[in-house]
Design goal:
The protein is of the alpha+beta class. It has four domains: 2-175 and 600-636, Triger factor/SurA peptide-binding fold (Orthogonal Bundle), CATH 1.10.4030.10; 186-220 and 487-589, no CATH class; 227-239 and 397-481; 266-370, Chitinase A, domain 3 (Roll). The strands form seven sheets. Strands 7, 14, 15, 16 and 17 form a five-stranded antiparallel sheet that branches. Strands 2-1-22-23 form a four-stranded antiparallel sheet. The protein is extended, with a radius of gyration of 37 Å. It starts with a helix and ends with a strand.
């Protein structure tokens, strides 16, 4: 299949175009994903369902990723929920297509690969070592069960194998890189003059009529979001009181069953001197080695320093330089013969020669760390939690069933469910579709609040899972419709916007007039600078990726036509900051690939192949999607 797809892609230009289109492809069919989700599934891909729960989980993960990346600058009010949901669904559809294609090509992921991937995640480690408890805790915070996470990881590995198989095998013809570098490595030298926005801001005046006009014209920009306050009932397995008393006998029995867990084994800090002897050595070699070892023991008995003799005589290169020091070790790490002898010695005692498969060892124990047993009293609470976990789980599922059934049977109140369960009705602060605190920080809770059934029909929600064995049922208590903010509260904001817009327009108009005069040779850049009390700046020969004088100015300079007969070519650009920059392009030098050092050539070659790999993967995905049957509720693809 992959070969057939590749044969349809023609030429270097085709690759570049596909690479550019790949980003746009990610939002292909966007309107399909903005429909209200009223079905039990989010999409069906070649007969395989993507559930609404999977879609919600993918959305939550994508949202959390944005929050982590943006940190304190994250503003929920600026978040386009529909766009994010569409992106999450597109990712799931693409992932499903990739996995289906990978299965057909025979790709697979072993349990060992999955385990290695999990063990490599720092978030699942304690003191640098993978912790099962930490693993389950981290997943629990995100409302993910281990089995689901591991299945998702397996799918990621398989999809990754497939994508690497496509993209990593792409290779450009030998002459393409030199051709591409003629433009990519091009250098340009130019002068430029910046007309600052601040010079126009001082000349702008804004009247009350201007503010009113802007307010009336842009009414949608000054709306308060629709908000609600809500009541909810919450069930969390971690806080349930089972009413069961854990006996001392039960705790003692569990403690004894898990005794090994609460014992830190004895350890020995030792050093040795090794006399190398092969396992199949003959009698003569054996005798010679024993004589050498006994001689070392005799020298030690006579008071010679162990570390000095180890550096001089030990055949163990790994420890000899450190005076034979082997560090601290417990049982099960050394050869049985060595371990037996080491754990029979007292601190400061030196052994007679001990034979192992490596030869003859003279061992000295430097320090003994005794076994430490954690007493029952220190782990009593942990053991009690273990004993109660089953009771809590049973109680949770019993109560959650009562909660769901009663909230459904009495859809216009939570009082009946609260009394049945003996729990208090709680209230949220004001919540919008894009922002909330407490239980309303969860996107699935906000979606339920603003759904037609809960918001418009006044019904209780279904039980909403916000964590492992942690659910809420919620209903609207109070509602505030979206409304236009009073002009008095946004007047200063509008004034600033209007000043900025008028200033930008003046800067652009003046800059474009100067540009027209330059192109018609009415004036030159130095004359304009003098008239404006500004200074002309000049660059060296720079590439497209230079840091100065800014990406927008460099892009405009590289978009201009090359100068002819040493006559500068003029270009202008209004920057995002509102400054207008006039450019006089004076020289263009073509990129010369052969002049690059071999290391740089190799790096560029890798970059080009990666670009082609992205383009090829885009082509594969486009083909998979064109051949697929994809159904989205109320849509057909």
């Amino acid at each position: 299949m992959l070969l057939a797809i590749r044969e349809r892609i023609m030429g270097f230009l085709g690759w570049v175009i596909l690479g550019i289109l790949f980003v746009a492809f990610a939002f292909f069919g966007l309107n399909s994903y903005l429909q209200d989700d009223v079905s039990s599934f989010a999409a069906v891909v070649n007969g395989q369902e993507i559930s609404a729960a999977q879609h919600q989980q993918a959305y939550d993960q994508l949202r959390r990723k944005m929050e982590q990346q943006l940190g304190e600058s994250f503003d929920p009010a600026m978040l386009d929920e529909n766009m994010l949901k569409a992106s999450a669904l597109q990712q799931l559809i693409n992932q499903t297509l990739l996995i289906q294609a990978a299965d057909s090509e025979g790709f697979a992921a072993s349990n060992e690969q999955i385990a290695l991937s999990i063990n490599a995640v720092d978030a699942f480690k304690e003191d640098g070592v993978f912790s099962k408890d930490r693993y389950e805790q981290v997943l629990g915070y995100q409302g993910i069960r281990p089995a689901g996470f591991e299945n998702s990881l397996k799918e990621d590995i398989i999809a990754g194998q497939f994508t690497v198989g496509v993209s990593a095998t792409a290779a450009a013809p030998d002459d393409n890189l030199a051709q591409a570098y003629v433009l990519e490595g091009q250098q340009r030298r130019f002068k430029y003059l910046l007309l600052p926005l601040s010079g126009f801001t001082e000349q702008v005046s804004v009247s009350d009529e201007d503010i009113q006009s802007y307010y009336d014209t842009h009414a949608d920009a000054f709306m308060t979001p629709q908000r609600v306050r809500a009541q909810y009932l919450e069930l969390d397995v971690a806080t349930l009181d089972t009413g069961v008393e854990v006996s001392d006998e039960a705790l003692q029995l569990l403690y004894e069953e898990q005794a090994a867990k609460y014992v830190t084994p004895e350890e020995r800090h030792a050093r040795h001197i090794l006399v190398r002897l092969a396992p199949d050595a003959d009698e003569e070699a054996d005798t010679a080695a024993m004589e050498k070892a006994n001689d070392i023991v005799a020298r030690l008995d006579n008071g010679e320093d162990f570390a000095v003799l180890a550096k001089e005589l030990s055949d163990d290169p790994g420890s000899a330089a450190n005076g034979g020091d082997l560090g601290t070790f417990g049982r099960g790490l050394m050869t049985p013969e060595f371990e037996k002898a080491a754990f029979e010695l007292q601190s400061g005692e030196v052994s007679k020669p001990v034979k192992s498969p490596f030869g003859l060892h003279i061992i000295e124990v430097i320090e003994i760390t005794p076994e430490v047993v954690t007493p029952l009293d220190e782990v009593r609470e942990e053991l009690a939690d273990q004993l109660l976990s089953t009771e809590r789980a049973d109680l949770f599922y019993e109560k959650s069933e009562v909660l769901s059934n009663t909230a459904f049977e009495q859809p216009d109140t939570l009082q009946g469910a609260a009394e049945e369960l003996g729990i208090a009705i709680q209230e949220t602060d004001w919540v919008s579709m894009s922002d909330g605190s407490g239980v309303a920080q969860h996107a699935n809770v906000r979606e339920a609040l603003f759904s037609e059934d809960v918001l418009d029909n006044g019904n209780n929600s279904a039980a909403i899972e916000i964590g492992p064995d942690h659910v809420v049922v919620i209903r609207v208590l109070e509602r505030q419709e979206s409304a236009q903010k009073p002009i008095e509260t946004v007047k200063e904001q509008i004034r600033q916007i209007t000043v900025a817009e008028k200033s930008r327009a003046q800067a652009q108009a003046k800059g474009e007039q100067y540009l027209a005069d330059l192109r018609s040779s009415v004036t030159d850049l130095d004359t304009i600078a003098t008239a404006e009390s500004l200074q002309v700046q000049e660059t060296e020969s720079i590439t497209r990726v230079a840091a100065e004088p800014g990406a927008e100015v460099i892009a405009a300079a590289f978009a201009a036509a090359a100068p002819v007969a040493d006559k500068p070519v003029h270009e202008g650009v209004l920057t995002a900051a509102g400054d207008y920059v006039i450019i006089a392009l004076e020289e263009v030098k073509a990129g010369d690939f052969s002049s690059l050092p071999p290391v740089a050539q190799k790096q560029l070659w890798g970059n080009l192949n990666r670009l082609l790999g992205v383009a090829e993967l885009a082509a594969v995905m486009s083909t998979l999607k064109a051949q697929a049957s994809i159904e989205i509720p109320d849509q057909a693809e």
